[in-house]
Design goal:
The protein is about 0% helix and about 45% strand. A six-stranded antiparallel barrel has the order 1-2-3-6-5-4. It is elongated and about 50 Å long.
Length: about 120
């Protein structure tokens, strides 16, 4: 992802994002399922990156991508889970800052939600 601005204004950090990890838990039926375990919360700024999009019939492979600027430098990792407004996403891409000593810098985080009803598919890796 490309950085369009050197810094993002503070008033734009208005979306609460809860980051966490999947933790396997055994249900009453004895089947192990992953549950979301919160690690930390952070306010993010919605970020827009304009790029060419392929026009195709996405059908059942439709995905939703959100990009946020977050000021928690280095905390967010690839393949973490994130909850925004009650909807669960997976971190698809993290672009770290070039200068972690600059207090105005930010990381760009791309969140991905796969197809299915309220399901987030984990990425390989």
């Amino acid at each position: 992802m490309v950085r369009l601005n050197k810094f993002v204004e503070l008033y734009r950090y208005n979306t609460l994002i809860t980051f966490g990890e999947p933790v396997p838990t055994a249900g009453e039926d004895g089947v192990s399922r992953d549950e979301f375990q919160e690690a930390f919360k952070v306010y993010g700024a919605p970020y827009t990156v304009k790029f060419h999009e392929d026009i195709a019939n996405t059908g059942p492979n439709a995905v939703e991508r959100l990009i946020f600027a977050v000021r928690e430098i280095g905390k967010v990792r690839y393949n973490m889970l994130a909850v925004v407004d009650g909807v669960q996403y997976v971190v698809n891409q993290v672009t770290t800052t070039n200068d972690p000593t600059d207090p105005r810098d930010y990381d760009l985080v791309q969140l991905l939600r796969g197809n299915g009803v309220e399901q987030t598919y984990r990425l390989p890796g």
